[in-house]
Amino acid sequence: MKSPIISGAIILAGMFIFLKFLLPLVTAPLPASLIYLYLALVLSGILIYGTMSAPSLEAMMGPIFRFLSGKGQTGAGQMARLAVLVMFPLLVGWQTYSRLVPSDLPPAENRTIHPAPPGEFVGLSNPYPKTPENIMMGKGLYAAYCSPCHGANYDGKGPAAPGFNPPPANFSDPGTIAQLQEAYLFWRIKKGGVGLPVEGMPWKSAMPRWEEELPEEFIWKIIMGEYDGAHQSPRTWEEEEE
Amino acid sequence: MLNGLGSLRTLSIIGLFGVLGFSSAFANEPPASDEPGSVSVRLYQLEGSLPSEDPNSSQWDSVPSSEFNLAPQVHWPPRIQEVTVKSVKVKGVHNGQELAILVEYADPTEDGADAAALEFMVGDKPAHFAHGQEMLQVEGGPVNIWFWKNESGKAVDMSAKGFKTLETQPHQDVQAKGVWQNGIWKVVFSRLLKTDDAQDVQVEEGEWRNVAFAFWDGAVVDGLVKEKGGQKAVSTWWYVRAEPSADNSIFGWVILGLALAAAFELVIVRKLRKGQSV
Amino acid sequence: MSEVALLQIIGMCVIGVGILILLFIKGMFLRVLGFVAMVLGVFSLIALSVPQMASLPPAVETFDLASVKSPDDLASIGQKIFFSKGQCALCHSIGPSESARCPDLNGIGAKLSAEFIYESLTKPQAYIYLDYRHDGIPKEYPAQMPHIDQDPIGLSKQEIYSVIAFLQKMSGEPISIKVEDIMETVKETANSLKVASVSSTLKSQLQNLADR
Amino acid sequence: MTSAGQLRHATVVQGMNRMPGLLKFGSFLALLFLPALAMAAGGAEIQAMSVEYRDVPGIGSRNLVWVVAQQHLLLAGFVLGVPIFAWICELVGWKTKEQRYDKLAKEFTKLLTSAYATTALFGGILLFLLIGLYPKLMAYLTDMFFPSFLVYCLLFLLETATLYMYWYGWDYMQGNKKTFHLFLGFLLNLFALGIMIVPNSWATFQASPVVVGEGDAWARAWMAMQNPTWWPVNIHRLIANVVLGGFIVGAYAGVRYLLAVSREEREHYDWMGYVGNFIGVFGMLPLPFAGYWLMREVYQYNQQMGITLMGGFLAWLFILQAMLIGVLFLGANYYFWMGITHRIPGSEGQYKKPVMGMLIVLLLCLGVWMTPHSLVASLAEAQKMGGTHHPLLGVFGVMSAKMTVSNIMILVTFMSFIMYWRAGKQETAGWAKAAKAIMGGLLVIAGIAVVVLGVWGYFVPAIIRINYFSVAQVLIVLFIMVTFTPLTALLMKSAKTTTEMVWGKMPIRAGYSLVLNAVMVILLMSLMGYARSSSRVHWHIYGVMRDTSDYAYSPALGYAAAFMSLNTFVFCLIVAFIFWVATLGDKAKAQPPKGSTMEIPGHTAPAMAGGAPSSGEKLE
Asked: Residue B70, exposed/middle/buried by CB under 10 A (0-12, 13-18, 19+)?
């Protein structure tokens, strides 16, 4: 009969292998933080289930405790126990070392992609009507000013895009401009990367501050052209995703 | 129990696949993986003198490189849509006193106006990669620029905080040497890790600094220099760090961790042997 | 040592103390306290492991009359006033909104003349606007328009002008407010300045402007 | 900027001078009776002319106010939440004629009386600190709200008087006078509600101010009180207070259970812990809906504030929130399940399967809920993903997914409770089988409907999702709760008990899990308090009065979390002290061994009660 502790270990290991090695076969690799999160959930599930009642607790923890206490063990059992007892402090020591040794990874930085705009840009609406002429003009302006980075296909893959970090926004992705109001875009185009608040890491964004070069009328029309070209529509009042 | 856990496993795996299968219906395609993946430059620690004078020194061969993509400068006018230098390989070394950074990039012709530059944030405040230009909601700091041009054959140590504030520092601390061979430029910049100049970036062993790159192809096309001034290939900020010397205090902590873990284990085992609850 | 590292060490020490209590102390109450300390320590460590970012206040913006050079400058100052000091956006929206309690100001700059808007802001009860956006008898709006030039909002004449400039711009209209008009009102204000509580710096600033 | 501020103070003085005569008389009364309040009104206005802020060296004014306000709010939450279920308990005892409910209600009220004075004490300290440290802001709020201050004081007097009568008259007002006592309890809750919603309006005005038009002081105060987030916050806090009260009572019972020496004590506190956990869970079920409404109002009121909360610099906070709520859901269900396996002998095998199913569903939901939209990733990891947004798992980060899983988690927890209710009982009614089949069918349909709406939500415009789909999900879950509860009650009415519940047999870890739940709730309240306060960013009064002090920034999450932990620990110590003092008397009374007079809950058969704990229960 398999003991619950072994079943638990198998589930945990299987989950780890699945998240770490199998999932990246079909999609981008998961960050370590997410793998830890899911493993922690699975582990807490195993613990909850294993400690639900007195018999299940005994079935799960009993063998471990008996093994650790070393009572009535001989030969291989004894050796295994010693090995575990030696391994544990070494593991902790190794963890301490790998935590403290200067890593080659620069500090994690997590840029907020859609930070809150300044108050004066929240409630604006596009003063220009969505006529075919205006949209046409917007698309022309987009081609001239925006497409080098954001791409002629509105997909963030313009010729200049590969060099920038953060990458230019992909407007055809439903997670970008479709989540935003026109006023938000107006703010981002007008003030550019340098207009971002601290959580937007303005020092890295290559988005120009277009207010220095383009009149507001052009910006509003570019917004129209952008939505139309990317086949998205601006969000009406709504909550923003986490 | 066996039964229960068997079905638990089955259920959880089915559930997981179900959830992931569902989410894959909405998934975007995974990003292209052909981009150079570096995020930082590591200045490897060497004993003795650095290959600062010789970009072709065999000392460089054993140093691993990082690679960064570059973009045409479209952030501020005068813009440029197409540049010669598409990416750069960077290697770095230091010996506790000095540092040397080698940039290696493709440029089919050697021209007098060919140039390369490194840019660093100075101080604690973040600076915008474009000459530390003013940010509207964040108080920014200055940048330190090391500029090399083929014609002059030497580096210029410069400072800026915002556009049109770029100026040559009164105190020059940077050397550079470039060699062009078979369509490849190799330029070595070198400096002391730390200087007395407040306008300079100070490289502290083990600490991260921000660096950005810029390159100009000085080829003459139709009687005009192809890239000059704001027309150049640029990168945004990446990281650079001088590899620290071995820090023995880490082992003190490791021993402490080991000892604590062993003591914990001892107490637990003793309790178990006595038959107490844990 | 950075603040985060310090807090992390404190967190780990707290957890360590909790473990020690649970290992060696028999008293139930202390054991529970040790348990609580461990839980809180773990919580803090997790919170310290996500990216740390403080939200810093932006620089205090001043309504700098001297910087006004074009009607567009005026409109951008008006935009700020509309959404902050003027408190206009507490009730009004520009464009359709479910939460707006008062008329939508979209296109208002095209519909109404600057003089009319000025009067609406300073003598709100001269005309009572009713809500016609539904069937049946028109209703009063849930909030009453306050006198914008009086307390507690108390916008100055030039501030009101700049808001009007903003509204005109938002309607795609040419801005009819002239920069010279603003300077005129500045002079008026400076000459009639009697309020004791206005700071002396502002007063001298206004005086300088008026003297130009 | 300063000049504008000073102008405003001038207006404050003018405003005070314009007050009508009646109000002046009112303030005169206030001066007579409430010196502290008078200082609030009078002291502030004089000081404000010269000082905008004062600081406290060392700790800093903001941190000091943070600690004191947090303690006051948590204590107040407890003090306002407990009378609600104490009164309901008393009502149940009166209706069912079961004395143990009356005793329990009295025990709750005892905890309430002892916490009441401390709450008021912290309130007073907070008031003095606010007046002293933030004179400019307080002058503004006083000008706006002064009449409501008077109402608040009046409510406070009434509440105090009612509480005294309610507590000291408990034993006197039994029998015929019980209805009057119940009426007192009702009044107590009514005044408590008033005491909560009046100050709420001051705080929500800071977050969502409205333009106050012309009118006398009373009309103006009323206009200011009716700000957009007032009622959502009132409802949210009301429910949250019940949850807080329930879990704290649960934790108190848990600790007393762990400390218990006699069998009777163990049985009593086991039962009390069960009731506390039950109240907490029951309150927790509608809480996410109230939170959703509040968030919706915030978005409607001001997008900027909404984005700051959900997508801006506070976005990471919601990962922590999901984690805390997750632990709370798991902890509450864990306690339910342990209750089944320990209190109903021989039931373990029978309930293993359903428990495992629920556990797996809960964990899957939690996995989705805790997956953030922007992940914590190193630069290299982020580059591999193409940003901090995972191409596959990113779909879990959006609102539609979160709403769906929280609805399912609520459903699961509700079913956990239903299962507990039905455990150890055998339905006898002829229609029981049909009813159970219908319930099962409804549950499956509801689950599928919630998931389908959630998935569909990805494909419709946001406005439709918010206004129709999310609401429909909530309604489906509420429908299940509303129909299942009476149905189960009917079924149980005629059911025969196959196995009696045995109280006092819970393992030690059950006591700890009750404590854990309480800590989670306290942390959650502290966390959301920080969120509420930080969403105003650098404004005292959003968009109207700017914070120009040194503390206008919002601290980073790690620092804030350390502070919340400290606050939580201090609160636990305060509560432990209060309860310790409150029960000193009991100990003296309990000295002579007369266990039989202690209330033995349930219809416990003597043979089943007591006995040595089995070997497994020694392990924690």
From this structure: buried
